């Protein structure tokens, strides 16, 4: 079984945005089935995951990691429903592609829409993530140092923790949080887009970066603004350099929601 790292910062961020919430009602009997496999890959292999309901958690592993470990837990309220949900994996040295197949809910036999799949995946830190696509639930990416990582969440919560790579994070409805426990001078860009929900960033005070943020209907709170630049009226657009020699770009965009950039001491 894959061991999931936990840290104080993760717990703080989860508390702030209520990232991981329970599902189902008390007293319901949930059936489970586990899939657990390890695939040999190159250090820059490509990962792709599609899922409808549940969660996707991807952890970057350092050192000489040359495998992608996949743990999937299927959950449903009936045995027929559990059996009908399948995890399909296509893997070779250069890529691992995972598709989650759910039964056609229009069929009478599957009028019960219960059923989720929770993924925990450990990859080389430099692995490319061509697609993490989840319709409903929670997504976490941690310690990813990839040239590209693309995440698409329809409805739920998205969390990026200690990622020093290029991330493209998109949320339809829900909240997004980016948290760093420490800072490294690296050249990377994180771009986020939230259609309906709030964005939160927790960044060390010694970080240097280019901050671009704008919201259509919400407001922006920014701890890195100079005191003389802070005004009582709401701000909905920011474009500024923080620190010297910034190599990193943070770009936050929300349509209907607020953006909060918080500073902390590493």
Offer a few descriptive terms.
mainly beta; globular; 16-stranded mixed sheet; 16 strands
Distance linking N and C termini: 32 Å
Give me the strand/helix succession. Answer: HEEEHEEEEEEEEEEEEE
Strand percent estimate = over 45%
> Are there runs of 5+ residues with pLDDT below 50, and where?
4-12, 16-27
- Number of helical runs? 2
- Which overall shape is indicated by the principal axes computed on the Cα atoms? globular
Count of β-strands: 16
**Average pLDDT value?**
88
Largest sheet: 16 strands, mixed
Radius of gyration: 19 Å
User: What is the count of structural domains?
Assistant: 1
Instruction: Please give the share of residues in helix.
Output: under 10%
User: Structural class of the helix and strand makeup?
Assistant: mainly beta
Structure description:
The protein is mostly beta strands and 266 residues long. 6% of the residues lie in helices and 55% in strands. The protein has helices spanning 8-17, 79-84; strands at 31-40, 46-61, 67-76, 86-91, 95-101, 116-124, 128-142, 149-161, 167-179, 188-196, 199-204, 209-215, 220-222, 237-242, 248-256, 259-264. It has a 16-stranded mixed β-sheet that branches. Strand 4 and strand 5 (95-101) form a beta hairpin. The longest helix is centred in the N-terminal third of the chain and has 10 residues, at 8-17.
Any chance you could write out the topology, listing elements then pairs?
Blueprint: H1 8-17, E1 31-40, E2 46-61, E3 67-76, H2 79-84, E4 86-91, E5 95-101, E6 116-124, E7 128-142, E8 149-161, E9 167-179, E10 188-196, E11 199-204, E12 209-215, E13 220-222, E14 237-242, E15 248-256, E16 259-264
Parallel strand pairs: 2-5, 2-6, 2-7, 7-8, 8-9, 9-10, 9-11, 10-15, 11-16, 12-15, 13-16
Antiparallel strand pairs: 1-3, 3-6, 4-5, 12-14
């Amino acid at each position: 079984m894959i061991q999931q790292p936990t840290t104080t910062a993760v717990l703080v961020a989860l508390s702030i945005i209520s990232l991981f919430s329970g599902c189902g009602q008390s007293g319901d009997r949930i059936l489970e089935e586990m899939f657990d496999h390890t695939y040999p890959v190159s250090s820059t292999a490509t990962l792709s995951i599609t899922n409808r309901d549940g969660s996707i958690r991807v952890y970057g592993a350092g050192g000489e990691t040359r495998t992608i470990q996949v743990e999937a837990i299927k959950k449903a309220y009936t045995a027929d429903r559990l059996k009908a949900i399948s995890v399909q994996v296509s893997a070779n040295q250069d890529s691992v592609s995972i598709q989650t197949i759910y039964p056609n809910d229009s069929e009478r036999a599957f009028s019960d829409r219960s059923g989720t799949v929770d993924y925990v995946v450990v990859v080389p830190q430099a692995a490319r993530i061509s697609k993490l696509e989840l319709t409903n639930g929670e997504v976490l990416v941690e310690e990813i140092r990839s040239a590209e990582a693309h995440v698409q969440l329809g409805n739920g919560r998205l969390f990026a923790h200690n990622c020093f790579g290029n991330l493209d994070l998109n949320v339809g409805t829900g909240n997004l949080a980016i948290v760093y426990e420490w800072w490294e001078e690296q050249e990377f860009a994180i771009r986020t887009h939230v259609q309906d929900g709030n964005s939160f960033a927790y960044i060390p005070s010694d970080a240097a970066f280019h901050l671009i943020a704008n919201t259509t209907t919400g407001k922006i709170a920014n701890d890195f603004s100079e005191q003389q630049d802070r005004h009582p009226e709401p701000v909905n657009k920011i474009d500024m350099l923080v620190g010297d020699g910034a190599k990193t770009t943070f770009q936050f965009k929300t349509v209907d929601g607020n953006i909060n950039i918080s500073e902390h001491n590493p």
